[in-house]
Amino acid sequence: MGVLDELGRCVGFDWDDGNEGKNREKHGVSDAECEEVFFNDPLVAGTDAHHSGSEKRYFALGQTDAGRGLFVAFAVRSGRIRVISARGMTRKELGRYSP
Predict the structure, then answer these.
(1) Does residue 99 have a cis peptide bond before it, meaning omega lies within 30 degrees of 0?
(2) Would you give the distance in Å from CA 81 to the centre of its chain?
(3) Are 88 and 70 a contacting pair, CB within 8 Å?
(4) H or E segment and range at residue 93
(5) Which residues contact 13 (CB under 8 A, 6 or more apart)?
(6) CB-side exposure of 29: number of CA atoms within 13 Å?
């Protein structure tokens, strides 16, 4: 099963005290912007084997409603997307992502 198939079965997002607002503080990315990436095309997603330990980690390259390119690291827990980290795309990532 591919990452996009798994995302298609998700029913929402998992925000709590552990991750809510964290990316705004660290990288200037709001929780809403993180969510927008998963609803806009194109979305490039893959497995992050390097950071997968006790749970499978993934990454997504996408854009917000305002067209801001973001890299989002996430996991899927109980059918919900749990954002681990989000930041603006690097130049290399922008090269991989072409809307």
Answers:
(1) no
(2) 8
(3) yes
(4) helix 91-96
(5) 31, 34, 35, 80, 81, 82, 83
(6) 27
**What is the model's pTM?**
0.91
Distance CA 27, CA 50 (A): 21
Angle at 63 between CA 62 and CA 66, to 5 degrees: 175
Q: Which domain holds residue 20?
A: 3-96
Token pair listed for 28:
């200037």
Integer Cα distance of 80 and 6 in angstroms: 10
Look up residue 18 and give its two tokens: 């552990």
The ranges of the chain with pLDDT < 50 are none
Strand partners for 81: 13, 76
Q: Collapse the DSSP code of 33 into the 3-class scheme (helix H, G, I; strand E, B; otherwise coil) and give the result.
A: helix
Number of domains making up the chain: 1
What's the pLDDT at 99? 63
